[in-house]
Amino acid sequence: MKHTTCWSRLAAALLMATLFSSPAPAAVEWLQRPLEQTQPNAADQVEFARVQTECMQTSATSFGSQQPWHACKLVHSGFVATIGLQDFFYADYCLIRKGDVCARQAQVLFRNRAYRPEAFLDLARLDPPGTRYESPVLIGSETENVLATAVLLPGKSQKQRRYFRYAQERWIPIDGTAWLQELRARLPAGLSVRVRAQDALPDPRSMMLSLPLYRGAVRGGSVEIGLTIQAGQLALAEFNIAKGTP
Questions:
Q1: Which of 71, 116, 216, 217 is deepest in the core (most CB within 10 A)?
Q2: pLDDT over 90 (residue 207)
């Protein structure tokens, strides 16, 4: 099968490029299996019993004498959610090149089918040392399975959020900004919002956002927004314009 190594080749290429292209490593956001690859790679199958107690060798997190990192330390791990017969677990790694100092950090997500001894890597991301990860959380309902992740990169003041929907035994990135079109269409004439894509994603625990409003080029007032999950996407549930908005 020509696609059986796409995921591992992509991971390896991105790793090498970001490891050796500059002295300050950039983030490698959420590596995942291509949609056309229906089965995980053998390199991404691990022993489930060890997923929460030690670092796992995968195509995205390889370590040892002949690898970019010579060692790995498990920083955090935990259970995320159950969907059908699949259980999901995350782990945060410290990847070490020399001594015991983190050269890179990683967050990985594994999937295990109930009562099976193996687990599979579903998602992985690599970041500079000093990155802070939140535990991934599942939001939605029994039929709307959406994963929310949050990362605070060093030197940044705002968390980087991403949302994924679960379909065909994989996590597929979703457009978290589509609801803005409906909001803009429903705002009173003359009012608008200007927001970067990364600022349009809510905290998954509250599903609320507060955005500044503009009348022409003048900023004034704000709009409080409530979001929900519909058809595997973020959707506008409600909004209220703050009192005093000109």
A1: 71
A2: yes
pTM over 0.85: no
pLDDT by residue (tens digit) across 63-103? Answer: 998 888 999 999 999 999 999 999 999 999 999 998 889 99
Q: Judge whether residue 39 has pLDDT over 70.
A: no
Q: Does position 126 have pLDDT exceeding 60, yes or no?
A: yes
